[in-house]
Amino acid sequence: MYALFEGSKQIGDPFPSEKEVWEAALIEGLVTDVPVAGEEGGRLLPAGYHVARIEETFEPKPGWKLPREIS
Questions:
Q1: b/e for 18-55, b at 16 or more Cβ within 10 A?
Q2: How confident is the model over 57-68, as pLDDT tens digits?
Q3: Whole-model pTM above 0.70?
């Protein structure tokens, strides 16, 4: 999973791929250009923002309960 960070704080939801994080940042207006493999561009994210890999953690949604029986 990947996510967008501002400094050390994760902002927004995690996505399965780095590409999806870039797309979400583009939609939000944080990115001026999407990176292309093998090409170098200008600054893509505002200073202090970066995309990083995160560990998946299971966080149940409020009201979620474990099923009584497992088939």
A1: eeebbebbeeeebbeeeeeeeeeeeebbeeebebeeee
A2: 656 556 666 556
A3: no
